[in-house]
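Researcher: We're reviewing a set of sequences before deciding which ones to prioritize for further study. For each one, I'd like a predicted 3D structure that I can look through quickly. This is ER membrane protein complex subunit 6. If possible, include the structure in token form so it fits the rest of the review sheet.
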Amino acid sequence: MADQNDLYKYFEPTVQHNTLALSNIHTLTSWGVGTAAGILGLTGWNGFIFFLLSWVVISAAVLTIKCEGKPSVFFKSGTMDVVGTPVLNTLLSYVLVWTLMHALVYIYD
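Model: Here's the predicted structure for ER membrane protein complex subunit 6, in token form for your review sheet.
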């Protein structure tokens, strides 16, 4: 059973707002990173390594700048909400934009 303090630790509308803001950050940066990867002509594993490196940088920036080093204050699962949870949805957006931009730039090579 949950402790009485844990039940009222988070105000749900604020947590939902933080989650939405984090989702917007991840989506927009995945589009930007996908565009960069497509324009740079990255293919295969190089593109996925580029995504992973950018994911680490973006997650570290969110943890240090937006969360002020204390993600458990803003999210129920703490660091897992910032780093782990949205990675698959962001990866799908990244691959979509990456392949689109690569095709647009290098279609006549």
